[in-house]
Design goal:
The complex is a heterodimer of chains A (about 475) and B (about 550). Chain A has about 475 residues and is mainly alpha-helical. Chain A is built from 19 helices and two strands. Chain A has one domain. Chain A has a two-stranded antiparallel sheet with strand order 1-2. In chain A, strand 1 and strand 2 form a beta hairpin. Chain B is about 70% helix and about 5% strand. In chain B, the strands form two sheets. A two-stranded antiparallel sheet of chain B has the order 1-2. A two-stranded antiparallel ribbon of chain B has the order 3-4. In chain B, a hairpin with a 2-residue loop joins strand 3 and strand 4. In chain B, helix 4 runs parallel beside helix 11 and helix 11 runs parallel beside helix 14. The longest helix of chain B has about 35 residues. The relative contact order of chain B is 0.10. The chains are: A mainly alpha (about 475), B mainly alpha (about 550).
Chain lengths: ~475, ~550
């Protein structure tokens, strides 16, 4: 199953270098082909590669998120790369490689495969982050991400090694079966768990492991930042769920407590710091940190409801955040980079449709109904309340009220400030239009009729334990 | 049941959205077309809504014109619209004021017309949706959806500090909203855990009684599960009302909103809060409602007196009227939490009255603002000589707002005070001072602007009201007289629903205190002795329809 995906992705990468647009389209085709193959395996559970690779509904759901994100990011990139002067074939290939890594990660039921997938993804993104060779901050972003990523991988690897040393196996289920109530209080095991939490914390950019994220978002090419926000953090979350729920459920009380603290800290810091940002990419970075905080609520709540809420929210978050990034790309015309919030000034008069689309994405990020973001948050906060984490839910809703403040800053710029005299005309390339349309349609559709998506998310977590 | 066999409520809710669609098709330059389209759709909506009181069955407390369709079955969300005596007049108020909002913006708004009217129409959809929704999910969606167009109306077409006021309005109400969402989720999961049925259906959720044994002690007060849920809802609604400590967004929002925005804000949006209390807090969480009555009473009395006192020192006409809303809304909450038929009926009719008279007051200020582009009281004086028609209409509306007999305000305030007296005469005594103060600040405002010598030369050649301007004020004044002189069609249609809700609130006490019926009958007699035409009728809690209310209301 995943084999087909890999073969297609590899072929795509090896295909002619120094390419033009058609390489991008070819990549999209590859993603779509993988998607079709994936759809054929809906609902099936199958072990492959001598029990190291599991394609189950849980992985299936995340793979959909990754593939949809990858396709949308490729669509956005096609015109953007040309205008940024980085129109190279490797870009598409690396995006595909990163996607491949993510798909490998979510299907791994073995710590080694998991680590390989993680590194495949990370290394691709290190390179992508530095793709704007002529810009210093892109280089800075890449270096920062590489150092922090390497550091966090090492910590995680250390945790993995300790886990292996304690249990003598790297299979997630085998680890769980060797652990018992007695061993659960083993200090070495707890240390391993803490290491894993820290390692994953870096990958998903939870506070206090988030420092590199704003610089990376700001410096990296916009589609790469979009990839980070929409897919890579979701992938980190996916393996986090699998490792903690499948391998060390014995320690659930302890790691729930850790994630409780992380969740609180992450969403609060993310939202509060986002208020002060004037660069929209930095703002989105902090907003993504805040959303990781919301998502961790699902981990804390655990159980079927919490986990399925996470799944649904990653899909929703991917759609809405990609929409915002697509808007940033749309505004990137000539000298205007679309990065400062001021660049959005007067957009409602220049291009009412674009402004309306942006408005819907921002409302969705803020969790205002009837958008998808609301359904996602309702489900997440609901999971917390069901498990009795009332205070966490209270803090979360206060946070989402805070978040409205900075999202509305962009709305104020778009609608309530006058058009600057040198207003440029916007011209969206066709692929970008498609990307915007898909994200917008998704954001509205899940908001108004979330039924089928909820069902899918619920069905996807059923066999996780 | 739905007597019309036709989804009239959905038609009303989404008709304005059709208008938005048509407006978006019109070219930017076609300003007349945009205005007329907006007017046509709001009038059409008003005409449709006029069918409702005609077909409304006032003998029952059940939901009428019900539409119920499964929406998200896995979460227990239904698309559930219905209407009863509580929402009936608020719905008509909404469609009525929407028409007025369109007319009053005819000349005063000339910038970005398409967006402006689109937002007004969207706002109408949101408001109607809130009044019709009987499913928490749907209710919350409309509740929040309503904020967005209002935010834009203030933020784009407002005056001086519009950005600040708009975001303040948005954050305050959103904050209240999300806390309310927690309350909704708590009720949802409790109901699910107890009965195995996960549903957002408000009527179904009311069938269960929520635990009122203390589970949490904070600062010496103990709270039960029901109390906490009650407080979550309370916060959401109290910010909207706004009740005393949460009112600070209101003067800013009102002052900076365009006239139509203020009219809708005062006329309908504030009523969402009191509507929420009576639709949700009272019947869903009856024990906690009684538990918190003293707190509510204290807050309302503070709002009544403090609001009135603050009015006295305002120099800006719009701000003055905004603070008078705080005072008047305090009355409405006071009457509601007297928890007897007179108080609650009075507060419902007063919601409509306040919508009419305060809406009209904002129109009055808007008219003068259009002419002079200032709202400072000190800029005016002696206008009655220059603008006699304006001064006359202003006077009538002022009297309506003060509660002069013969006009609508009197009916509401009178009933509310009776209700309050029956519960506790101290509360009523405090509340009465609010009326006195209300008369003081309104008369003083009138005196400073209308009477005296016409000293400011800028006021010397102000034109009196045009025909268009008259069409905004005269219908409101007609309604004020109608409710003031012949309120029984209004009161009789709310009665069954009010009795049903009170029966729920008093479900234990009705058994424990048989004396209740005596005292209420006494009060009813008192009303009749006053020769008021209000038909408060039998006030004994109605048992029959009450018990199978929710079940029988299904289509």
């Amino acid at each position: 199953m995943g084999l087909v995906a890999m073969v297609i992705l590899m072929l795509d990468f090896i295909a002619p270098k120094g390419g033009r647009d058609w390489l991008g389209y070819l990549s999209i085709l590859g993603v779509l082909a993988t998607f079709t193959t994936l759809m054929g395996q809906r609902g099936a559970t199958q072990l492959a590669f001598s029990g190291q690779y599991l394609s189950d509904p849980f992985a299936f759901f995340f793979k959909i998120v990754f593939l949809v994100s990858a396709a949308l990011i490729l669509l956005m990139s096609i015109g953007h790369l040309k205008s940024e002067g980085i129109d190279k074939g490797e870009f598409y290939g690396l995006i595909l490689f990163a996607t491949l890594g993510m798909m490998l990660m979510v299907s791994a039921v073995d710590l080694l495969i998991l680590y390989i997938g993680l590194e495949t993804m990370s290394i691709s993104i290190y390179i992508l982050a530095g793709f704007l060779k002529r810009e210093r901050r892109s280089g800075e972003a890449a270096l920062k991400y590489l150092l922090m990523g390497g550091f966090s991988s090492a910590i995680m690897l250390y945790g993995i090694v300790m886990l292996y040393g304690l249990t003598g196996t790297i299979g997630l289920r085998e680890i769980a079966s060797t652990l018992s109530a007695d061993t659960a209080s083993n200090p070495a095991l707890i240390l391993a768990m803490v290491m894993l939490v820290a390692g994953f914390g870096f990958k998903i950019a939870a506070v206090p492991f988030h420092m590199y994220i704003p610089d990376v978002y700001e410096g990296a090419p916009t589609p790469v930042a979009a990839l980070l926000a929409a897919a890579s953090e979701a992938a980190g979350l996916a393996i986090l769920l699998r490792v903690f729920l499948v391998a060390i459920p014995e320690l659930q009380d302890r790691w729930t407590l850790l994630f409780y603290a992380l969740s609180l800290l992450t969403m609060t810091v993310g939202n509060v710091v986002a208020i002060a940002q004037s660069n929209i990419k930095r703002m989105l970075a902090y907003s993504s940190i805040a959303h990781i905080g919301y998502l961790l609520i699902g981990v804390v709540a655990g159980r079927e409801l919490g986990i399925s809420a996470i799944l649904l929210y990653t899909l929703i978050y991917a759609l809405m955040t990609l929409g915002v990034f697509a808007m940033v790309i749309l505004l990137c015309v000539g000298k205007v980079k679309g990065e400062r919030i001021d660049d959005f000034t007067g957009l409602a008069q220049r291009s009412p449709m674009a402004a309306a689309a942006m408005l819907i994405f921002l409302l969705s990020l803020a969790g205002v109904p009837p958008t998808a973001g609301f359904v996602g948050k309702l489900y997440l906060f609901g999971a917390a309340i069901e498990q009795g984490y009332i205070w966490l839910a209270v803090i979360a809703v206060i946070n989402s009220a805070i978040s409205v403040f900075y999202y509305m800053k962009v709305v104020v710029a778009m609608y309530m400030r006058d058009l600057p005299p040198q207003g440029l005309t916007l011209s969206a390339s066709r692929p970008l239009r498609v990307a915007l349309f898909v994200t917008l349609a998704g954001t509205i559709a899940i908001g108004i009729y979330p039924g089928p998506f909820l069902e899918l998310a619920r069905a996807s977590v059923a066999g996780l334990w | 049941m739905n007597v019309l066999q036709f989804p009239i409520l959905s038609l009303m809710t989404y008709l304005p959205l059709v208008g938005v669609f048509f407006i978006s098709l019109l070219p930017k330059e076609c300003k007349g077309g945009v205005r007329w389209t907006a007017l046509a759709f709001t009038i059409a909506d008003l005409l449709v809504s006029l069918w409702i009181p005609v077909y409304f069955d006032q003998t029952t407390a059940q939901m009428q014109f019900v539409e119920k369709v499964s929406w998200i079955p896995s979460l227990g969300v239904t698309y559930f619209f219905g209407l009863d005596g509580i929402s009936l007049w608020l719905v008509l108020l909404t469609t009525f004021l929407s028409v007025i909002a369109v007319i009053c913006s005819w000349e005063s708004v000339s910038m970005r017309l398409k967006e402006y009217y689109a937002f007004i129409l969207m706002l109408e959809t949101g408001m109607l949706g809130v009044f019709f929704s009987l499913d928490f999910f749907l209710f919350y969606i409309f509740w929040e959806v309503m904020l967005v167009p209002m935010y834009f109306l203030i933020g784009i077409w407002g005056s001086d500090r519009r950005l600040y006021s708009a975001i303040k309005f948005f954050l305050y109400t959103l904050f209240g909203g999300v806390i309310m969402l927690l309350g909704i989720l708590a009720v949802y999961f409790y109901h699910g855990a107890q009965t195995g049925v996960y549903t957002f259906d408000i009527l179904d959720l009311m069938k269960l009684s929520y635990p009122s044994t203390p589970i949490l002690t904070l600062l010496g007060f103990s709270f039960s599960f029901q109390d906490l849920v009650w407080l979550a809802f309370f916060l959401g609604f109290a910010i909207k009302v706004p009740m005393f400590p949460f009112h600070t967004w209101l003067p800013d929002a009102h002052t900076d909103a365009p006239t139509a925005g203020s009219v809708i804000l005062a006329g309908v949006l504030l009523k969402m809060g009191t509507y929420g209390f009576i639709r949700i807090n009272l019947p869903l969480l009856p024990e906690s409602t009684q538990h918190f009555v003293p707190m509510i009473m204290i807050l309302s009395i503070i709002a009544i007196i403090y609001g009135a006192l603050v009015c006295m020192v305002q120099t800006d006409m719009k701000r003055l009227i905004a603070y008078s809303s705080v005072s008047h809304m305090g009355f409405i909450v006071l009457g509601m939490f007297a928890l007897n038929p007179q108080g609650v009926q009075g507060s419902i009719i007063q919601m409509v009255n306040h919508g009419l008279s305060t809406g009209a007051l904002f129109l009055i200020v808007g008219l003068i603002y259009d002419r002079r582009h200032t709202r400072q009281i000190s800029e005016f004086g002696g206008l009655s000589k220059q603008m006699p028609v304006y001064a006359t209409l202003f006077a009538i509306i002022m009297f309506s707002s003060m509660g002069l007999p013969g006009l609508n305000g009197f009916i509401g305030e009178f009933l509310i005070l009776i209700g309050a007296f029956k519960e506790n005469y101290v509360w009523a005594a405090f509340a009465v001072t609010g009326i006195v103060l209300g008369a003081a600040y309104m008369l003083w405002l009138y005196q400073r602007t209308m009477f005296g010598a016409l000293e400011n030369p800028k006021n010397a050649d102000l034109p009196d009201l045009s025909f268009r301007e008259l069409t905004t004020l005269v219908p409101i004044i007609v309604m004020c007289f109608w409710i003031g002189l012949y309120p029984s069609p209004f009161l009789s249609r709310t009665e069954a629903s009010v009795n049903y809700i009170l029966a729920r609130v008093h479900k234990q006490q009705a058994v424990a205190e048989p004396a209740l019926s005596d005292s209420t009958q006494l009060a009813t007699g008192h009303i009749e002795a006053c020769a008021k035409p209000c038909q408060s009728g039998p006030v004994l809690p109605v048992k029959g329809p009450a018990l199978d209310h929710a079940g029988a209301s299904r289509d």
